[in-house]
Design brief:
It contains 15 helices and eight strands. With 408 residues, it is mostly helical. It has three domains: 104 residues, no CATH class; 96 residues; 188 residues, hpI Integrase, Chain A.
Length: 408
């Protein structure tokens, strides 16, 4: 039986701290290794997962390359085993004979590379990105109707036809833009992996317009109705209304960020966390209403502040991502039941709370810059923003306190 393991070969100290990633093969208690051609600094290697850590800037592409090389070795090894002809010498000879073929066929096709990238992105616990790549790839391949679509086949005429087909299918501009962004990202990673020359890059010639997102805010009076309506305690509708109001008191925190909050995020009466979407640190003074809601759920989950996700959920995995989406769908259902109960006719979703917080702040006379910083957004030109001072934390605290007062 042949055994395979992907490891970082750090047996010899390197002056530059870069070590090769190798495939270790064990057969009849003997061991040999094959280098993958990828070298990284030791701190970027995950010994438990046997892959490059997600904080490496090129982890997705490099992990995909390592995985593909490993699969090539396994394929040849299993073939030799089936022929009862396995030995390290035979393996090396077979690989050497096929090296040109391996190089020329190495992820030539768009779908092949995309699937490898999707798998490695899932393995890196970046399910959101992986699922976006997955959906876009399926749509593109469905349009192409060619399983052997090459990167060089994706030219200006192809992309324009793809865009027009999406329009014909009834997709909105923002949805089309999302598909194109994902396909473009996959293509760019293929360029970095030296699988296609940058001269073939056609996305720069295709313009995909986007639409301004429809305003989803509700009025302060409708928000107060939802906050005040009598609901039976400890029922799903009651809990999801609590999460909705809590999100509002926390400056429109996203549902995903809310679900993964832990007790360690509370420091001296303030909630400090990093946004999943941008990685930006958010610092919020916990006001009485937020403390009241959080207090009710104290100890309800072994790990998180709220009982939204199971305590053993692994953030970023496909399973956790699907669970979050299911929770959002359920919350939206109960929010609309709540709205109906208190005669609020607007469609209510988890996105409404963030828009409502911003709209309330705007009506109170606060500037777009201050509102943007409160929400953790960039405002205006990013270069210009480098030269602007951040607002004092006390100023942002005051904004939130005044906004929350609409519930009184």
């Amino acid at each position: 039986m042949v055994y395979f393991k992907t490891v970082l070969d750090d047996r010899k100290v390197k002056s530059d701290n870069y070590y090769p990633i190798v495939i270790r093969i064990t057969f009849n208690r003997k061991v040999t290794t094959f280098t993958t051609g990828v070298r990284i600094q030791k701190e970027f290697w995950d010994d438990k997962l046997h892959q490059i850590k997600t904080d490496h800037p090129n982890c997705a592409v490099l992990n995909a390359n390592v995985l593909e090389f490993s699969l090539k070795i396994q394929k040849v090894s299993l073939l030799l085993e089936s022929e009862n002809n396995f030995s390290f010498e035979q393996l090396k000879e077979r690989l050497n004979n096929n090296v040109k073929t391996i190089k020329t066929t190495k992820v030539v096709y768009f779908n092949e590379f995309a699937q490898t990238l999707i798998n490695s992105t899932f393995e890196a616990n970046k399910a959101g990105t992986a699922m976006a790549y997955q959906v876009a790839t399926k749509r593109l391949m469905g349009f192409a109707n060619n399983p052997k679509l090459k990167f060089t086949d994706i030219d200006y005429l192809f992309l324009e036809s793809f865009r027009k087909q999406l329009v014909k299918d009834g997709l909105k501009p923002n949805a089309i833009s999302t598909y194109f962004r994902s396909c473009r990202a996959i293509y760019n990673k293929a360029i970095k992996a030296k699988l296609v020359n940058r001269s073939h890059y056609a996305f720069i010639d295709v313009t995909v317009k986007t639409e301004r997102t429809t305003k989803r805010a509700i009025t302060p009076s409708d928000l107060k109705k939802i906050s005040d309506v009598e609901l039976q305690m400890n029922t799903p509708i009651w809990h999801y209304r609590n999460y909705f109001i809590l999100s509002f008191t926390l400056r429109g925190i996203s549902f995903s960020d809310l679900a993964y909050l832990e007790p360690s995020n509370i420091i001296k009466g303030r909630l400090i966390y990093k946004r999943k979407k941008t990685g930006q640190e958010i610092n919020i003074k916990l006001l009485p209403l937020a403390l009241q809601i959080l207090g009710f759920y104290k100890g309800s989950n072994k790990r998180f502040l709220l009982p939204i996700m199971p305590h053993d959920a692994i953030e970023g995995t496909e399973q956790a991502r699907k669970l979050i989406m299911d929770r959002i769908k359920t919350m939206n259902k109960y929010l609309n039941k709540t709205a109906s109960k208190c005669k609020v006719e607007t469609n209510i979703t988890t996105y409404v709370v963030r828009h409502t917080w911003a709209t309330c702040a705007k009506r109170l006379g606060y500037s777009n810059e201050l509102i943007a910083e409160s929400l953790g957004h960039e405002y205006g030109n990013k270069i210009t923003n480098i030269y602007l001072d951040n607002f004092e934390q006390s100023v942002i605290d005051e904004v939130n306190e005044r906004v929350i007062n609409v519930l009184k």
